[in-house]
Amino acid sequence: MILKSRCFSDILDKPPKRGPMSKKTLCLNILFTVLILAAATVLAYLFFYLGKNTTSVAIIYILAVVFISRYTDGYVPGIISSFVGVICVNYIFTYPFMKFNFTIDGYPVTFVGMIIIASLISTMTSHLKLQSRIINEREKLLMEAEKETMRANLLRAISHDLRTPLTGIIGASSAYLENQENLSEKAKTTCVKNIYEDSNWLLNMVENLLTITRIQTSNMAIHKTSELLEEVVAEAVQRLRKRLPDANIQIHIPEDFILIPMDATLIEQVLINLMENAYYHGNPHEPIILHVFPEDDQVCFEVLDFGKGIPEDKLPVIFDGSPSTPNASGDSRKGMGIGLTICRTIILAHKGKIYAENHEHGAKLSFCLPLREEKEHDD
């Protein structure tokens, strides 16, 4: 891991090497340079014969150099265009016209100054383009590194959250098969109940994996429709109660008619994951509170439990897929890793934000969704 980190650091420190220019790029550079210089010459001709001002002509050619440097690859087109501009100013727009003459008083200094300015602008523009390309490539590398980290955390969470219920199922079924003649009816019922609960947990895990696969295969692009807030919350609570009939859920939602652009199925999955997390890691004798309220141009959802809360060192990374330490519920079989990772993935895909914090009597997990669809612009 240390070796990988050093290699990645070396990649960031060194600018990317560019290969030889392709023939297509070379032809495009030549064509663009010729067209811009031709357009600059026509425009300079109009300015000169209408205004009789050589200064305007020089500025037009300097602007042409800037455009050529900005929209071509490498330093050469800009530097060549700066020389061509100086030659055109002297040959076409300086007396005697259509002849070279660098002996007129003041002109040598003007031409030397112009070529220096044009060359510096060309070099600076090309250098800025190169720096921008390097920054973009480094950002891509950082994004890839972040994706790899998220993937590693997700795999770790999957291995943890799948192993624990499977171990419970194997242990309960083994105890039942080996000792069924000596077990009381109550003990048999307990074994079967444990198998049933862990099987439901595995089913929920598969649903979560399918959800994150669906989002990642569509490159985080989700289909949003305007959904009624009350209906989405009601459906999520109903689905959770089928899975956890003993859950005591208190719901506080606004009475106003609120429509939110979302993928209803995914947001219901987020609510189920957060409330299920509160059920397993909160105090089973206290209710789970779901509080929904509008705030500015967004709607916020808060799920509160009444357990020991989240350890302070876990708060910054709780959505990264790291398995948590069991808390007040005492149920060491249930992890929070993958479920909360799914929640973050879904909320980020909705252009929303998700938070984890502690309140006075337990933990509070919340997320906010924008009330209006954000339009994407192509750069």
How are the strands of the largest sheet arranged? Answer: 2-4-5-7-6
Contiguous low-pLDDT stretches (5 residues minimum) are 1-12, 324-333
Order of helical and strand elements = HHHHHHEHEEHEEHEE
What best-fitting shape do the alpha-carbon axes yield? elongated
**Structural category:** alpha+beta
Proportion of beta-strand residues? 5-15%
- Please describe the biggest sheet, giving its number of strands, its sense, and whether it closes into a barrel: 5 strands, mixed
Share of residues in helices: 55-70%
Tally of helical segments = 9
The counted number of beta strands is 7
Separation of the first and last Cα atoms: 36 Å
Mean pLDDT score: 78
Rg on CA atoms, Å: 33 Å
Can you offer a commentary on this structure?
With 379 residues, the chain is of the alpha+beta class. 60% of the residues lie in helices and 11% in strands. It is built from 9 helices and 7 strands, in the order ααααααβαββαββαββ. Strands 2-4-5-7-6 form a 5-stranded mixed beta sheet.
What's a concise summary of this model?
The chain is an alpha+beta fold. The chain contains 9 helices and 7 strands, in the order H-H-H-H-H-H-E-H-E-E-H-E-E-H-E-E.
Topology:
Layout: H1 2-13, H2 23-51, H3 54-71, H4 76-92, H5 107-179, H6 185-217, E1 225-228, H7 229-243, E2 249-252, E3 259-262, H8 264-281, E4 288-295, E5 298-304, H9 337-349, E6 353-359, E7 362-370
Parallel strand pairs: 2-4
Antiparallel strand pairs: 1-3, 4-5, 5-7, 6-7
